[in-house]
Amino acid sequence: MIFDIAKDELVKSLSIVMKGVSTHFTLPIYSCVLISAQDGAITLHTADSETFVKSTTPAFIEEEGQAVIPAKLFNDIVKSFPNEAVRVQTAGQSNQAIVSCSSSSFTINAFQPEDFPSFPEVQSSSQITIPSKSAEQMVKSVSYALSTDINRPIMTGILLEIANGTITMVATDSYRVAKIQKFLNDEADGISVVVPGSIFRDVVNSASLEDSLTIGYTENQIIFTFGSTSFVTRRIEGNFPNYQRVFPTEHTTSFRVPTAQLIDAIKRIRILVNASPLKNSSIKLSISPEEGMVVISANFVDLGAGVERIPATIEGEKLDISFNPGYILDGLSAVITDETVAEFTTNARPGVFRTAQNDENTDFRYLIMPVRSN
Questions:
Q1: Mean per-residue pLDDT over the chain, rounded
Q2: How far is CA 142 from CA 58, 108, 211, 265, 318, in A?
Q3: What is the pLDDT of residue 359?
Q4: pTM for the whole thing?
Q5: CA atoms within 13 A on the CB side of 371
């Protein structure tokens, strides 16, 4: 195998497939990348027990063939090269690959291609195609709410539902629930799968914003395709929490404020919270209909106090309620409208922050549990 390729193109392709390199297998071959050179292109393929990634890039092929080499080492070497053509070659049945660029040359021990896991052939029972930009926005709007508890795998995934031309993504760690919906001009219907959150993030971060992202699934696998790249991973089995039941259908207090102003005020008050040695420190939202004001505050006996006052459109009853400021900011970062609406029932029940109105047929809602006041 001998081929030449522009360094930038090789780095770009490697950055994608590196997301599929195994980090927990003891067999060295699972930390490698399979390189296949044929038909005027190279295909890079990485795999572990649950996720497979491949990406194809045009290259000048002098001699077709395959090689399996350590992925991280190969990636680090290529990234260190000057911005010139990179040549990769193997000779016959040699167990070595030579990677060179300009005046640099590295010889890397290789593995047998036939020992590398084959890329699965997936026949989707149903699929949908959406703009990559929309998928990226939706995943980023909910992924911060994913659980990291591996003992509850269903909550480490993003629920993907498609019904009546609307796509919904939901994530929760049991303390909060992030949900975003977007209307699509697509006939797909009746899709409900839980996608590993880390893989979904890798996919949308790898896809070009000009690409379309096709999502298909089988009984136990999900396949993402964009451009000349494919991700195949296992879907998470189990029953996702009933998010529709936890969102309240009514409220007793609500306010509407400029999103940027609310974010800035909470960030300033959070400075005190971050300086406090107390665990689970919170900020208090005091909602006063009579004054038309939302007061955001934090008070620590041994540290000091801070207050922010924001004029607001308020409906309902007066209410004081406390939240983790980082959790609120996570949700507000996903609000795409100039104004945010917040809705509450009591200071012991969850509050909901949402977009003030639909923007490009998008609706975002974020439910968060309150905390006891400091």
A1: 91
A2: 35, 41, 21, 23, 30
A3: 56
A4: 0.90
A5: 16
Give 186's pLDDT tier (boundaries 50, 70, 90). Answer: low
> pLDDT tens-digit profile of 317-360?
999 999 999 999 999 999 988 999 999 999 999 999 999 875 56
Q: Is 357 exposed, middle or buried (0-12, 13-18, 19+ CB in 10 A)?
A: exposed
Distances (CA, A) of 209 to 65, 203, 226: 32, 12, 10
Beta-carbon contacts of 367 under 8 Å, excluding residues fewer than 6 positions away, are 176, 177, 178, 179, 246, 247, 350, 351, 352
Question: Which runs of E-coded beta strand occur in 93-190?
Answer: 96-101, 104-109, 126-131, 157-163, 166-172, 176-183
Residue ranges in 156-258 assigned as alpha helix (H) = 197-206, 243-246
Reply yes or no on whether the pLDDT at 93 is more than 80.
no
Collect contacts of 146-153 with beta carbons under 8 A, ≥24 apart.
Answer: 146/171, 146/173, 146/197, 147/172, 147/173, 147/174, 148/173, 149/173, 153/236, 153/238
| Of residues 42, 49, 50, the one with CA closest to residue 14 | 42
Q: Which residue has the tokens 């003030």?
A: 356
| Whole-Å CA distances, 246 to 33, 262, 370 | 44, 25, 14
The identity of residue 316, as a single letter, is G
Alpha carbon distance 25, 34 (integer Å): 16
Sign of the dihedral defined by the CA atoms of residues 28, 82, 19, 39, in that order: negative
Q: How many Å apart are CA 353 and CA 247, to the nearest integer?
A: 11
Determine the length of the chain: 374
Helix intervals (H) in the chain: 7-17, 71-80, 132-142, 197-206, 243-246, 259-275, 325-332
Percent of the chain residues topping a pLDDT of 90: 75
* Euclidean distance between CA atoms 296 and 306, whole angstroms: 8
* DSSP element (H, E) containing 70: strand 65-70
Cβ atoms of 33 and 77 within 8 Å: the answer is: no
